[in-house]
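In this supplementary section we document a worked example of the pipeline. Step one takes a protein sequence of length 115 as its only input; no multiple sequence alignment statistics are reported here. Step two produces a three-dimensional model, which step three serialises into structure tokens for compact storage. The input and output of this example are shown verbatim.
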Amino acid sequence: MRIRGSLLLTIVATMMALFIGCGGGDDKGGVATLSWNPVISSSPISYTVHYGKQPSASPGACTYEHSVDVQEPQAMITSLDLNTDYYFAVSAFNGAARSLCSAEVTKRTAILAVR
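The serialised model returned by step three reads:
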């Protein structure tokens, strides 16, 4: 069973740095908030957000370093490196088949200055 339609990753990608407290020296405070238009025609039961510091090998491929499954057409990805470019794409799963990945979106996490 093939998933019909395509995912349009309209990333409301707010890339920001969250920092609580002082010190620690942890550069993994970046957060990406993503949302996309849901696939309606094939009744997906979940989505996978694929992401990493390198772009995908080819359009539609989901070749990224990391992925996370979510139930809704939105996700918050945490523990990202600060001041770093990340590449994101989304695929849908309907219980039988996975869609191709959406178009890729690139965002840079914020720089955090701590005094």
